[in-house]
Specification:
The structure holds 2 protein chains of 2 kinds. By secondary structure, chain A is mainly alpha-helical. Chain A has 4 helices and 1 strand. Chain B has 2 domains: about 100 residues, no CATH class; about 45 residues, no CATH class. A two-stranded parallel ribbon of chain B has the order 1-2. The chains are: A mainly alpha, B mainly alpha. Chains A and B meet through helix 1 and strand 1 of A and strand 3 and helix 6 of B. Strand 1 of chain A pairs parallel with strand 3 of chain B.
C-alpha cells in the first residue's frame, strides 16, 4: 500500500480512538500517528527487505514503552503502526506479523477480494 | 511408446500390442546409458495404475520427469507428486496461498468490537442510541433506494 493510504488509515484510527478515550493533544497525535504509519516501510527500506522486520508486531513493545514517556505520542505511534499492519493484512500479499520467529504471511479475505495496491 | 520409438530410432513399429509392463521393460532395456527426460502436462489426470509405471521409471537414475498441473489431483498419486521439485515455487505459493494464515474472522471480530465501542461512546443514552441506529438505518435505505433508482455506474 502507498504511504498516503497508510497515513489516512492511521489518522482515521487515531481520531476515532481519541474521540473514544477523550485523548488530549489530538493534533500532535495525528502527526505522530502519521509518522508511525510509515515507520514499518522506513525500517524495511533500511533493512532492504519489504514486508520484513519492519512489519513485525514486536515493534509494539518499544511503542508501548513510549507511552510511559508521553501518552499521546506513544498511543499515536502505536495506533499508526497497528493501522499499517492491519491495512497490509488486507492486501494481496498479507503481512508477516510475527516476522523473525515466523515468516508466514497473515492475510484476510479470499484471494479475489484482497486489495491490490500500487506497491507490494 | 513414443519414448521407445525415439530412443530406438523408430525401429519397432508394433508396440501397440505390448502391455504396460512390457513397454516399461523395453524402455529400460533400450535406454541403456542414455538420459531420458519425459515432459508431460496435466499431472492431475494421472491414475493410480499409470503412476505405478511412472514411479518405477522415476526410480531409475537416467530417467527424469518434468510435468505441470493446474488442479487438485487424486490422493493415490501423491507419493509420486512428492518426488518432484517446484520450479516456480514463489508463483505457486502466491497462487495457492499455502504459506499463509487467513485471519478474516479475527479481523471481522476486531472491527465489530471497535464499531461497538464507538457506537456506545456516541450513544450516551438509550434515546440517543435509538436515534443513531434509526438514522443509520434510514441513510442505508436512502442509499439503497438511490442505487435502485439511479442504477449502478
Amino acid at each position: 500500500m502507498r504511504s498516503y493510504t497508510h497515513i489516512a488509515g492511521a489518522i482515521l484510527l487515531f481520531v476515532t480512538l481519541a474521540y473514544f478515550t477523550n485523548l488530549d493533544h489530538v493534533i500532535i497525535g495525528i502527526f505522530f500517528a502519521s509518522w508511525g504509519s510509515v515507520f514499518p516501510d522506513i525500517i524495511d527500506r533500511l533493512s532492504g527487505k519489504h514486508r520484513g522486520i519492519g512489519h513485525s508486531i514486536f515493534w509494539l513493545i518499544p511503542f508501548a514503552l513510549m507511552c510511559f514517556w508521553n501518552l499521546t505520542v506513544g498511543v499515536a505511534m502505536l495506533l499508526g503502526f497497528i493501522s499499517h499492519v492491519f491495512l497490509d493484512i488486507l492486501t494481496m500479499y498479507g503481512c508477516p506479523v510475527l516476522y523473525p520467529l515466523w515468516k508466514t504471511d497473515f492475510v484476510c479475505f479470499g484471494k479475489k477480494r484482497r486489495i491490490k495496491t500500487g506497491t507490494n | 511408446m513414443e519414448s521407445i520409438n525415439i530412443i530406438s530410432g523408430n525401429r519397432k513399429p508394433s508396440l501397440s500390442r505390448l502391455t504396460i509392463a512390457e513397454l516399461r521393460d523395453l524402455l529400460v532395456k533400450r535406454l541403456k546409458y542414455k538420459t531420458l527426460i519425459i515432459l508431460f502436462n496435466h499431472f492431475e489426470r494421472l491414475t493410480k495404475r499409470s503412476v505405478q509405471a511412472y514411479q518405477y521409471l522415476n526410480s531409475l537414475e537416467n530417467i527424469r520427469f518434468v510435468c505441470s498441473f493446474n488442479k487438485n489431483f487424486k490422493p493415490e498419486v501423491y507419493s509420486f507428486f512428492r518426488t518432484f521439485e517446484f520450479i516456480n515455487e514463489d508463483e505457486y505459493k502466491l497462487k495457492h496461498g499455502r504459506e499463509e494464515i487467513n485471519v478474516t474472522y479475527a479481523v471481522y471480530a476486531i472491527l465489530s468490537v471497535y464499531c461497538f465501542f464507538i457506537y456506545m461512546k456516541a450513544a450516551s443514552s438509550l434515546l440517543m442510541a435509538t436515534i443513531l441506529i434509526g438514522g443509520a438505518w434510514f441513510a442505508l435505505i436512502i442509499f439503497r433506494t438511490l442505487m435502485y433508482a439511479g442504477g449502478r455506474p
